[in-house]
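Bumping my old thread because nobody answered last time. Still need a sequence for this structure:
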């Protein structure tokens, strides 16, 4: 038994080391990571912080007169919209892809009160800088919560709303115990390439890993290998607290904008699931039910369910995702 345990420890160490070896360290603002399109920065002051908000603004050769803004999830940044952006631009859309403050190439402030209203205001500032009066808004995962708040605050700026496997379709406080920001920070500090991959395998890809998933793992795993990681982990803790404490699910019935829900029904993502009582955990993140419930709450909304698809349809089943998206916005 001792020999077996020793062998398992060695094997785990070798696998972890191999996974880390293929990931290169990345600083807090991904300064030496090249995004798929030219990156611009909006410089502004917020909450007594001098901030830089990164964004890509990709224009078509033959414009159709429409703009679409793509909002990333919590474990991602604007880079993972590369293929979506390319195909939208080819269809004549102007595509704007911001990195929210605390994410990607944008600033990672230490003293910042993160709120979905603040992120929505920051996002509006990018559109104002670009003199864009109206846009289609697509939000994935946490970006779905940002997109919801943005639409509720600035309905006059939103032509159509698309929510792709958004989190926040349920109130996590009603399931999971609260954790302090300090506790969340200590938890974030424990992340490694292996823990991130295990999480993505479980919730995103149903334990089937493909080569095309690796770049999006490398981006967040690379942070854990850099001396800047405590800075990144602190903002990750602050934004986890934001998600837990600021539900949007009670306000879906206030959305009057034409809305599409694209829902991978295999998804089981739920914030704080590990802190919920064992008997409640299986009830969390039931997207095959949450999608239908949310459609009923948003008057006139359309639901496209993608069977046996996880948390990131635009990565896992891109053709099906894009067909649903383009059919709604063309």
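Sorry it took so long. Here it is:
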């Amino acid at each position: 038994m001792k020999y077996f345990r020793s062998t398992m420890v060695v094997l785990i160490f070798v696998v972890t080391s191999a996974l880390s070896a293929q990931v290169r360290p990345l600083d807090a603002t991904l300064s030496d990571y090249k995004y798929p399109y030219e990156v611009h920065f909006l410089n502004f002051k917020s909450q007594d912080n001098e901030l830089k908000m990164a964004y890509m603004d990709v224009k078509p050769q033959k414009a159709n007169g429409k703009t679409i803004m793509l909002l990333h999830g919590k474990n991602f940044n604007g880079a993972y919209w590369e293929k979506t952006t390319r195909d939208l631009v080819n269809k004549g859309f102007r595509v704007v892809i911001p990195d929210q403050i605390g994410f990607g190439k944008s600033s990672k402030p230490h003293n910042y009160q993160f709120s979905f209203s603040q992120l929505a205001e920051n996002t509006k500032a990018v559109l104002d800088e670009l003199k864009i009066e109206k846009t289609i808004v697509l939000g994935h995962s946490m970006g779905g919560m940002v997109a919801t708040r943005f639409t509720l605050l600035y309905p006059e700026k939103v032509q159509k709303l698309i929510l792709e496997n958004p989190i926040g379709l349920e109130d996590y406080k009603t399931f999971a115990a609260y954790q302090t920001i300090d506790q969340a920070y200590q938890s974030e500090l424990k992340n490694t390439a292996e823990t991130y991959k295990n999480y993505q395998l479980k919730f995103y890809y149903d334990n089937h890993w493909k080569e095309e998933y690796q770049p999006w793992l490398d981006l967040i795993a690379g942070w854990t290998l850099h001396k800047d990681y405590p800075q990144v982990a602190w903002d990750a803790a602050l934004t986890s607290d934001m998600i837990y404490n600021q539900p949007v699910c009670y306000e879906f019935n206030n959305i009057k904008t034409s809305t599409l829900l694209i829902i991978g029904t295999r998804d089981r993502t739920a914030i704080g699931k590990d802190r919920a009582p064992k008997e409640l955990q299986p009830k969390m993140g039931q997207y095959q039910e949450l999608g239908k419930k949310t459609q009923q709450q948003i008057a006139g909304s359309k639901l496209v369910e993608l069977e046996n698809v996880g948390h990131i349809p635009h990565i896992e089943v891109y053709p099906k995702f894009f067909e649903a998206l383009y059919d709604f916005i063309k």
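The longest helix spans residues 2-21. Let me know if any region looks off to you.
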